[in-house]
Write the structure tokens for this entry.
Amino acid sequence: MFGKKKKAPQIDKEQLELIKNAQKRIRQKKRLYYHFVLFLIGAAFFIILNLGLGLGEDVKVFNQNWFVIAILGWSFLFVYHFISVFVTYKFMGSEWEKQQIEKLTAKQHERIDQLKASILKEEHLIAQSEVHKQQKESNQNTKIQQSKSELTIIVAAGENNAIGKDNKLIWHLKDDLKRFKKLTSGHHIIMGRKTFESFPKPLPNRTHIVITRQEDYKVPENIIKVNSLASAIEVAKGDSQPFIIGGGEVYKQALLFATKIEITRVHHNFEADTFFPKIDESIWKETDNVFHSKDAEHDYEFSFLTYIRK
């Protein structure tokens, strides 16, 4: 139904035959009428030559005066053309053409009605599909919103919202790692497949929930695999504060439902291929800001920021 190129409608054989027949008949009648006028003028011309000017008085054809033969020939052609143009015209003339046009028009209307019915059916199926999709999304959103957990996003991002490159961290900040461990220990951590694969091994003292659409994706024992953010939050509903830890697409989805953001803002612009969405301050309120200067163990200045949903 979708993505396939439809063939252009073709005139069926019966319609094509009717059209060709009508065109052919029109040409025949025109030619016959022209012939009739031509022979009528020619016959009159010969009569004038013989009677008026006396031309060919001694010419005989089959022992008959040529004038008699000419009159008989002209009469035959006259009768033939009369029948062709006037008598036949009554059977295949304007009325016949009108009937054929009405037949063609009726067939076209029938085809148009069929196309309309097909389009309406297709639109109905599309509408049903959209309603089903919206209902599914609404059900997922309802499940997330009904969760009593304080869903928290935790992330480290540069001034340009860079968070990673080639599925790796761009910086190494010791105090940021300590803060991450302190906040997430004992809780569920929710992540995408690529984020999980960036770990050398699962993080201790945390329940890992991995989101992936790959049904045959294998995870180690005690790692929970789900196929959506809604399912992940449902699994973690017993946790008072599950954490979203990445990557970019999961962060984007989670921003719609999270109640808190813990962000380490690294005060530098970085080249990256993964970014954190911009925080909309009309929705989020900054409640805490702790600045850390650059030192021997930290190559960049950074701040620990906390946001809560207004």
Remarks:
- The helical segments are 13-52, 66-92, 94-146, 174-184, 193-197, 229-235, 248-254.
